[in-house]
Structures are given as structure tokens and as C-alpha cells.
Amino acid sequence: MILNFLLDPNVAYVVLALAFVITILAMLAPGTGVLEIMALAALVAAGFGIANNPVNTWAFIPILAGTVLIFITMRRTSRWYYLAAAIAILVTGTAFLYKGVSGIFAADTLLVLMVSASMGGFIWIIGHYTRKAFNQKITRDLSQLIGMTGRATTHIHMSGSAHVNSEEWSAISDIPIPVGSAITVIERNGLVLKVEKLND
Question: Rounded to two decimals, what is the model's pTM?
């Protein structure tokens, strides 16, 4: 089978860590479709690894808790130690998910330590800049964007991007809007614009 390489706990663990990193990136920067496809493929591969390797079921608790806490701390607080604790919880859960037979971890210990440090550091960097963006004070009146026109730079529906007022914005719409369509801004929610397609 094409995914049999995931029966190796070393490979399965690395794929699991990559799946979390790519999924977090896709959720924080929606719209292009590339990250979403990569995240879906990584999650499917990680799921295959989980289904076909012995796992510690208790590890799903810190994985789920850590993931939720990472997103909450990125958006709700500027205190670094909350984010550090959330990352530590997630990394611990992923490290112990696969059941070890002869050691603490199913995967090679050095590999687990290296991947855990890389994963934690990468999420920390993403979280740091995300928190800065959410906590940054708005210095101009963004309500002026309502009524402005622009162009859809990606497909827009539940997520997407639009070029408005010489800047790139995250955008959503009630009805799917094809890439390249002329749009107008009808509502703003934080840094996300709700748009609708202009009639040709």
C-alpha cells in the first residue's frame, strides 16, 4: 500500500508533527488553497499512521488541549508563558502518542527531541507574530473600507483574500466569488472584510 511507510513510528511521528504545523499555518493564513490542501494531505497521512500503529490513547487529551490553547492564547492574551505552556502541552502529547515498546518513545529519542524542539520553536514564532498582530492598535479608521471596491485575489466564500485600497485583506462572502472578480466591501469584522461580487 502507498502509505505503508507510515507504519514506521519514526516516519509516522514526523508526519504527525508536520501535520500540526501545516494545519496551524493554514488556519492562520486562509485563502490560497495551497496550505489547506497540504494540511488535508498531512492530516490524512497522520491519521493513517495513528490507525495502524499502537498509540497511547491518553495522549489525545494533551494534543487536543494544546491545540485549542494555542489558538486561544494567540488571540486572547499577550503573556508569553501561556503560549509556551500551550506549546509544551501539544508537544508532549505528540511525543507520547505512539506507544513505545522498548523505550519511552516509539520513535527514536533523538528524533523526538529534535522534532519537538523544531515544532515548538516554529509554533512559538508563528504565535509571537500572530499575538502582535492581534494586539496591535489600529491607527486609522478602517470603517472607511466599507463601500470600497477591489478585486478577489483568491476564491472567496468561507475564507479568501481580496485586494482593497492597495492592500491585501482576508475576506469572506455569503455566496462564492471566483478569483479575479470585482468586489465591494459591505462589512468589516476586525481585520476580515465581508464582500460581495459586483455585477458586470
Answer: 0.62
